[in-house]
Amino acid sequence: MCELLAVSTSLPTRLTFSLHTLAARGSPTGGTRDGWGVAFYQGGDVALFREPGAAGDSALVRYLESDGPPTRLAISHIRHATQGAVQLSNTQPFVRHLRGRTHVFAHNGNLAAIEGMPGLAGGAWQPVGQTDSERAFCALLARVEPLWAASAVPPLEERLAVLDGFAADLRRLGPANFLYSDGDALFAHGHRRIQPALGLIEPPGLWTLRRHCAAANEPAHCQGGVAVKEGGRMVLCVASVPLTDEAWRPLAEGELLAARDGELLATREPAVASHRPA
Q: Is 237 a catalytic residue?
């Protein structure tokens, strides 16, 4: 299956080992060679890097490990193609601009029959490629757009409520692990994925780790796969599988979390699918 990774920090941070570890899952031994991408938030915009090839073979991945832009929020994806050709337009993360905000989305799973599904129509938002994941992103944008009609950032609880219902509808179709940011907060939804030890599709679909990195006078590296240029920062990671031997916490099936600047803001238990008409 695909691999997801998000890193939220209190100060600008450069990804190193996390990106390398995720990229290794796109190597010939990892079995996911169909594309990779990473979005680095830079203020209100995003620096997006994507390739429709194996991440483990990528010179660009190696460059980003040493010279990638420092960021407070990064979202990365390694693709195992289930729907859509192996091409750039089908390579995640997907990025769209809505009412002056840069929105980023990445999904792990296979959402069978999402096209034409009641409640998951994209309206004015239409996919560039052919993937179920991009169709899901368009449906999400159609749902959150009314929240952003005013100039102010919508209350977190309102956004969580919309995302909770959206995630419930996705779970009706198949594995629905996703990472999403509206430029203000990171949202992560854990569901199910193939568990290598069992060969079955079961929870957990995502894991999370939060820790405090080195103080300013200590070595500028933090366990958990993140290198830091200055010390004293909080780091929250979300990944498809634990990337280190630290105490990663599995997300419960259907759990939704929100984070900002390395801090966990809220979690929500799963909601019942809404069955809204298109």
A: no
